[in-house]
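ESCALATION

Customer reports they have been waiting on this structure for their group meeting. Please prioritize. Original submission:
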Amino acid sequence: MRNDTVTFKDLSIFPSGGSEGVAGLIDRTTTIAGKEALYRHIKNSTVTYEELQLLQDCIKWWAANLQYWPSIITNGTLVMLEKFFESADNISAPPSGFAAFLGEAFQKTFNKGEYFFTQFSVSHIADFLKGCKELATIISKQDIPPLLQKELEAILDELQHPLTDELTEVTKDTPYRIQAKLSYHARREMKNRIYRLMQHYARLDAWQSMARATVERKWVFPSLLPSIPLCFESKGLYHPLLQHPKPYDISFDRQQNFLLLTGANMSGKTTFMRSIGVAALLAHLGMGVPAAEMRISFFKGIITNMHVEDDILKGESYFFAEVKRMKLTAEKLLQPEPHLVLMDELFKGTNVHDAYECTRAVVEGLMNRPDHLKILSTHLYEVAKHFSDREDILFSYFVTRMTGDDNFTFDYELKQGISQDRIGYRILQKEGVLDLLNTGKKGL
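Update from on-call: job pushed to the front of the queue and completed.
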């Protein structure tokens, strides 16, 4: 799945403005390297249906076997390894014999920094290799998914070096002369090997993180389906960033793959679309989703049209920015692979009549792209009414409850049909805006 920065921003995927974002919810990595691997995976997730299936099998395995994740490797371990291998080394020959014995006494007395750096570094190399050995033993377990087995075999292959066993036997009681010798040889013989091991470890760290988040949050693994025929079905779907989310049930197929969503402002339309977008993204990462059940086709990408911004430096108006985003959407929908398209209140940067005409034209054009799943929210009742006789369009809305004293409440419940709620003027009145503007008017 390929998504752009606008989509990530619209769906609040990465930390921003004090929020940890969706990425923060699923980050259970134990190292910075693992976190970086996780973020790379989010930005560039699997590109084929078959790859996604293999990855989901791998994350499912970790979700059921988190006890095998080695605790001996910490973020400090990897930081120390990088510092060790990148630091200057002025030793031209390995310490040996009586010189090594004297070297320990001299180092401890006159060069404490080098002495403790060597001990500390070798200790962390030992811990890292021990952790990698623990991971490699998993390969002997039954029913190891192919993708995980491939990573474990690569780790096992990198561990095949004479120094591995010597380094993993190091303890705090190992004489300094032995540690100094191991440090010398490790720097010269194992640097590239250990860097490759770190890459494998980071990848596994990202996978176990997604598995751990799935388990901790009691999410479910979705059923992954091929791109064609188009399918998206969910029960109990909710937005993971909300403390008290409202669950939704929704079903799409190739015959009805367009949802026209209506309802008053603040009634829940945008949150609903974001819930679908976030769940689709998580599914394409291979992990669990916030829902009771979910079946989803493999999508090429997610395209959002939610919070378009104008560009003062380029002299572009808000409306022109909306048009450019819509053009990009149209270009992507020329591709045969299905996309998930989420459009929220299009053409807010123009007058109501223009917005109606533009939105209606866009809906008509989108209906010519039946192999993509599309959701469009609008507060323009007339747009939904214009297409109300189309059987290939789903119509849903969110209810606004009104009381006799002009109060209103939202239950965020998704219902079939077209909303006719009009509460903008009432909100303006209730908040006292009109009273403030009219204060003193009679005295003029």
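Sent to customer with the following note: The chain has two domains: 31-216, 223-443.
Escalation resolved.
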